[in-house]
Design goal:
The structure holds 2 protein chains of 2 kinds.
Chain A: E1 3-17, H1 24-29, E2 36-50, E3 54-58, H2 65-73, E4 80-86, E5 89-92, H3 105-115, H4 120-134, H5 149-162, E6 167-171, H6 179-194, E7 198-203, H7 206-212, E8 215-220, E9 223-228, H8 230-248, E10 264-265, E11 274-282, E12 298-310, E13 314-321, E14 326-331, H9 332-335, E15 342-352, E16 360-369, E17 376-388, H10 409-414
Parallel strand pairs in A: 3-7, 3-8, 5-6, 6-7
Antiparallel strand pairs in A: 1-2, 1-4, 8-9, 10-11, 11-12, 12-15, 13-14, 13-16, 16-17
Helix pairs in contact in A: 3-4, 3-5, 4-5
Chain B: E1 15-18, H1 24-33, H2 35-51, H3 58-79, H4 86-113, H5 115-120, H6 127-153, H7 165-190, H8 194-207, H9 215-219, H10 227-231, H11 234-246, E2 250-255, E3 258-263, H12 270-299, H13 302-305
Antiparallel strand pairs in B: 2-3
The chains are: A alpha+beta, B mainly alpha.
């Protein structure tokens, strides 16, 4: 298979002006002393996209992924390096496709198709299809300036996917429009994949990458970090995101305590009878990675200290996702577990046989209370977290235990249908 | 979930290369390949221009007519320029100039005006200034109808032998206008007040072109000061139009029995005009090559600057 897109050590430098002078007069006044900082939006990026494959470009905002896509699309020229593309290319960058607001939808469709390299005759042939796909039959002879943003995007997408491109470049477009239209877009993308077209998607939606991509690359500060299978790429992307946040934010948050870093002492904030002294999250792969695979076991160890003997005690745990939804919550009383009296230092653990989660970062709240929950000895609100990374292409949050079975077709046709009694 | 189904291998299509410093030759090739897009853009420009105006194309006829009236009053009635049939003289040069100046003005602003397109889709951006010149060419043809009507009414004798030079001169003018237009449209992205400077430059340029006065007035002046007039690449084009349409080389008139001859156009042989036009062509081609290079170099950052 040949490569549909070859990106050969592409670098792109921007000049960041502190003040940007755009008139000759100003340039003349400030001649020779216009300060700017060179900014490398892309540094030596090198990768291939095989014909017929779908590749995602992942990265957080400002990592250069849109710049890369614009270079591939030929809208920006790289400062160094070159990009070779084979076949007709249609690009959907950010919102819309550069429609002229003064022209009607119809005129814009012809204009856009012409820019994408279609002859007028060919455009006439696919025109009805475009309009039907965009669901704009009633508005096609209206000036585009009167379109809603949704209509605008729909028409842009409809043109791009109906001009029979060999290569489709998509920049976050799949995340706009109503749900029904989004589904339609994804379906069309899937159809493109079956037809052997090449797709390059820029996104920061890891889930989308997992769902539709064969491969993904991760960009971080203009550099290509990894070029791998989607699961692996998403993991690296998450890590770089996480790393970035750790370095940038100093505010206390769930990341403050590194649960995986060993028995990190927790600051003494309470003068209660029983205090949580340390928290530790353990899982089988602890030595080589600080995230869990789906369905791995996990143990949360909790060290505590009681200043005086305490019989009236329970231990509680809550697990939230990052949107604040509580996924799980229980305590020793609800579980009917006898808690030995606390006196001096002690240790207990919550041992999960398996964590049936697929993906994401989860926040753990730990509490030590009196049995009637009337007295809180210590409460650590979401100071511990753990992360689950999904290496597979299955999507979603929860890892449902699943077996897939097929009824033997020979037996199915004999009877009136699959029934439990006829099984082998 | 999205298991890679059986995918049909597709034949590899046309190869496109994006890289810095594409040669001028490659750029020309790209422009020629996309001529259908050029035609479409010219059509759209015209459509937009006349979409909201009742009189539509009639407006474009008013402009030369107004000029005609103003210059007729100023030069024939007040100054007494001594050019017989002044309206025909004026129109044969002015229409050409209008094509040049309006084309250049439209081309200069074209990239900035179409920033939405430039930021979103890839195509040879040179097509924008060229399309702007193209739409002004349509106006030129419409305005020319005014001249044709005048010629027909007064049964004016044109110099038929020189008429074949007109399309040639027109092509040279289009090349020249496109060349300067491409250059200025790129500069205008970085220096947005280019169009203001262009207006001033065009005003000076107009008066340095023998349109309202006769070429021979300048040509017969002694010294080197007339060389900028000769070097003006628009002059040969205007001369060809005047020679073929106005077609009167001298103004012969008798005042109080004395026969006076005022020269209007040069008494060159046919090839003299062709050679002078050749100079314009060379000027246009060199400028065009230079312009496409400059455009190509600055195009890399259009999408950021807009």
């Amino acid at each position: 298979m040949t490569a549909a897109i070859e990106v050969r050590s592409v670098s792109k430098q921007f000049k960041l002006y502190h003040e940007h002078y755009t008139s000759l007069k100003e340039r003349f006044i400030h001649y020779g002393r216009i300060p700017y900082e060179p900014f490398m939006a892309l540094e030596d990026v090198d990768f291939d996209v095989e014909q017929g494959s779908t590749v995602g470009i992942l990265g957080h905002n400002g990592c250069g992924k849109s710049t890369l896509l614009k270079c591939v699309a030929g809208i920006l020229q790289p400062t160094r390096g070159e990009i070779v593309t084979r076949g007709r290319m249609a690009a959907l960058l950010e919102l819309g496709a550069g429609f002229n607001h003064e022209l009607t939808g119809r005129e814009n469709v012809f204009m856009n198709a012409s820019i994408l390299g279609l002859s007028k005759r060919d455009t006439v042939k696919i025109f009805d299809e475009i309009v039907a796909f965009a669901e704009l039959e009633k508005f096609i002879d209206m000036q585009v300036r009167h379109y809603s943003s949704g209509m605008y995007v729909r028409l842009g997408f409809a043109v791009a996917v109906n001009v029979e491109p060999d290569i489709l470049l998509v920049d976050e477009v799949l995340s706009v429009g109503d749900e029904a239209f989004q589904r339609k877009c994804i379906e069309r993308v899937k159809k493109f994949q079956q037809e052997g077209r090449t797709i390059l998607v820029v996104t920061h939606a890891a889930d989308l990458v997992r769902r539709i991509c064969d491969r993904a690359i991760v960009l971080d500060h203009g550099k290509l970090v990894i070029d791998a299978l989607p699961g692996e790429a998403v993991r690296v992307f998450r890590e770089s995101l996480h790393g970035g946040e750790l370095n940038e934010s100093s505010e206390p948050g769930p990341a403050e305590i590194e649960p995986e870093a060993g028995a990190a002492p927790i600051a003494e904030t309470a003068t209660h009878r029983v205090r949580i002294t340390n928290v530790l999250v353990e899982h089988p792969g602890l030595t080589e990675r600080n995230w869990l695979l789906p369905d791995e076991p996990m143990t949360i160890r909790l060290g505590y200290h009681a200043t005086e003997r305490t019989d009236d005690i329970l231990f509680g745990i809550l697990i939230h996702d990052q949107d604040g939804n509580q996924l799980f919550g229980t305590n020793t009383r609800l579980l009917g577990i006898d808690v030995p009296p606390a006196d001096g230092a002690g240790e207990m653990s919550f041992e999960f046989h398996r964590v049936p989660l697929l993906d994401g970062t989860y926040l753990v709240t730990l509490a030590i209370q009196s049995v009637d929950e009337g007295t809180v000895y210590d409460w650590r609100e979401q100071q511990t977290s753990f992360e689950v990374m999904n290496p597979s292409q299955t999507s979603g949050l929860v890892s449902f235990p699943l077996d897939v079975k097929f009824v033997d077709p020979a037996q199915a046709t004999q009877g009136t249908g699959p029934s439990p009694g006829t099984g082998a | 979930m999205s298991a890679p189904e059986i995918r049909v291998p597709r034949a590899p299509g046309k190869t496109t290369v994006v890289r810095p410093n594409m040669s001028a030759r490659e750029r020309f090739k790209r422009i020629v390949e996309r001529r259908e897009l050029l035609v479409g853009m010219v059509r759209n420009e015209l459509k937009i221009k006349y979409k909201n105006s009742v009189l539509g194309f009639a407006w474009s006829l008013l402009n030369p007519l107004l000029y005609l009236v103003v210059f007729y009053i100023a030069f024939t009635l007040i100054l007494g320029s001594g050019i017989p049939a002044f309206p025909i003289w004026l129109l044969s040069g002015l229409l050409v100039w209008n094509l040049f100046s309006t084309g250049l003005g439209a081309a200069t602003g074209s990239v900035v005006a179409n920033s939405g397109l430039v930021k979103k889709v890839s195509f040879p951006r040179e097509i924008l200034p060229i399309a702007a010149v193209g739409s002004m060419l349509v106006h030129f043809f419409l305005q020319s109808s005014v001249l044709f009507v005048v010629l027909a009414i007064v049964r004016w004798d044109v110099a038929w032998a020189y008429i074949p030079l007109i399309p040639l001169a027109l092509i040279v003018l289009l090349l020249l206008t496109s060349a300067l237009g491409i250059l200025l449209s790129a500069i205008n992205v970085y220096l947005r007040d280019t169009s203001h400077f262009l207006e001033l430059a065009l005003l000076a340029w107009f008066w340095m072109t023998p349109i309202v006065y006769q070429f021979q007035t300048v040509a017969r002046k002694p010294g080197w000061s007339k060389w900028p007039w000769f070097a003006n690449p628009v002059t040969p084009i205007v001369l060809v139009f005047q020679r073929s349409i106005y077609a009167r080389l001298d103004n012969v008139h008798t005042v109080n029995g004395v026969r006076t001859v005022t020269p209007l156009l040069p008494h060159w042989p046919y090839w003299g005009f062709v050679a002078y036009l050749g100079y314009s062509l060379a000027f246009a081609v060199i400028t065009l090559t230079l312009a496409v290079r400059v455009f190509g170099r600055s195009e890399a950052n259009f999408a950021e600057e807009l």
